[in-house]
Design a protein that fits this description.
Layout lengths: L10 E5 L4 E2 L7 E2 L4 E7 L2 E5 L1 H23 L1
Antiparallel strand pairs: 1-4, 2-3, 4-5
Length: 73
Protein backbone atom coordinates (compact mmCIF):
# COMPACT_ATOMS: atom_id res chain seq x y z
CA UNK A 1 0.00 0.00 0.00
CA UNK A 2 1.51 3.40 -0.94
CA UNK A 3 2.22 5.84 1.83
CA UNK A 4 -0.05 8.88 2.07
CA UNK A 5 0.96 12.05 0.25
CA UNK A 6 1.64 15.25 2.18
CA UNK A 7 0.60 18.81 1.44
CA UNK A 8 3.53 20.05 3.50
CA UNK A 9 6.80 20.94 1.85
CA UNK A 10 9.93 19.33 3.16
CA UNK A 11 11.13 21.24 6.22
CA UNK A 12 13.36 20.83 9.23
CA UNK A 13 14.87 22.85 12.05
CA UNK A 14 18.64 23.22 12.26
CA UNK A 15 21.27 25.59 13.64
CA UNK A 16 22.76 28.30 11.45
CA UNK A 17 26.43 27.77 10.65
CA UNK A 18 26.95 31.46 9.90
CA UNK A 19 25.05 34.68 10.50
CA UNK A 20 22.53 35.84 7.89
CA UNK A 21 19.17 37.56 7.54
CA UNK A 22 15.80 35.81 7.68
CA UNK A 23 14.40 35.29 4.20
CA UNK A 24 10.96 36.53 5.21
CA UNK A 25 12.03 39.67 7.04
CA UNK A 26 15.48 41.07 6.28
CA UNK A 27 15.43 43.00 9.57
CA UNK A 28 15.50 39.71 11.49
CA UNK A 29 19.06 38.50 11.97
CA UNK A 30 19.88 34.82 12.43
CA UNK A 31 23.22 34.49 14.21
CA UNK A 32 25.59 31.55 13.98
CA UNK A 33 24.32 28.79 16.25
CA UNK A 34 20.71 30.07 16.32
CA UNK A 35 17.93 27.59 15.63
CA UNK A 36 16.10 28.30 12.35
CA UNK A 37 13.44 26.84 10.06
CA UNK A 38 14.96 25.22 6.96
CA UNK A 39 12.41 24.92 4.15
CA UNK A 40 13.21 23.01 0.98
CA UNK A 41 12.01 24.91 -2.10
CA UNK A 42 12.71 23.20 -5.42
CA UNK A 43 16.37 22.21 -5.11
CA UNK A 44 17.43 24.93 -2.69
CA UNK A 45 16.72 25.80 0.93
CA UNK A 46 15.21 28.90 2.46
CA UNK A 47 15.94 29.82 6.07
CA UNK A 48 13.64 31.64 8.49
CA UNK A 49 14.06 32.92 12.04
CA UNK A 50 11.90 31.30 14.71
CA UNK A 51 9.64 34.36 15.01
CA UNK A 52 8.75 34.18 11.32
CA UNK A 53 8.60 30.37 11.45
CA UNK A 54 5.87 30.56 14.11
CA UNK A 55 3.82 32.92 11.95
CA UNK A 56 4.24 30.67 8.90
CA UNK A 57 3.21 27.56 10.86
CA UNK A 58 0.20 29.30 12.45
CA UNK A 59 -0.97 30.53 9.04
CA UNK A 60 -0.61 27.07 7.50
CA UNK A 61 -2.50 25.47 10.39
CA UNK A 62 -5.44 27.79 9.73
CA UNK A 63 -5.40 26.88 6.03
CA UNK A 64 -5.29 23.15 6.80
CA UNK A 65 -8.14 23.43 9.33
CA UNK A 66 -10.21 25.31 6.76
CA UNK A 67 -9.53 22.63 4.14
CA UNK A 68 -10.57 19.90 6.58
CA UNK A 69 -13.79 21.77 7.40
CA UNK A 70 -14.60 21.97 3.68
CA UNK A 71 -14.16 18.21 3.36
CA UNK A 72 -16.41 17.57 6.36
CA UNK A 73 -19.28 19.75 5.08
Amino acid sequence: MPRPKSLLKSFDFDNAKKAHNCQHNGKHRINAGDKRLKLKVNRTHEHYCLECAKKIIESDLLKLKSALEQINE
